[in-house]
Please model this.
Amino acid sequence: MINYLQNKEKRHGFSFIEILVVVTIIGIISTIGMVTYTEFLKKSRDAKRKGDLEQIRASLEMYKSKNDSYPLTSEVTFGGDICDDPPTCTSGIYYLRKVPNDPKTAQYTYYYESNGIDYTLGAYLEQSSTSSCGDCAIVGATSCNYCMGPYGQIVPP
Model:
């Protein structure tokens, strides 16, 4: 009996309950970290989309200042650029060499509609209301939920 007690006192380590508590705490902290990280990624992609729309908007304003109208919807190639001699853009001034890709899908997922007098730019944001402001042709989305008009004005849904 004395030998058994001496062996028990010499044992060092953690009990099963202690290990279980530590693993549970680490799991909870990891879950919170992953959710926060995912939300951060969504917000950063949305900021990139808004910046891309601003870049497109600025090039449209430069186009208008030279040509006295915005390019028509049919004159902007979304795989391409905004220039003085659409649709080929083989000569003339480039206002935007290449329309930016969506940061998540790497596809052209921006909406543009113009009648020459004004325009609407749109994108689908991950962190936004579900309101619609345009009929976007976006893969996996039915409509834009963030739209912008001339001079950077936000177009209401």
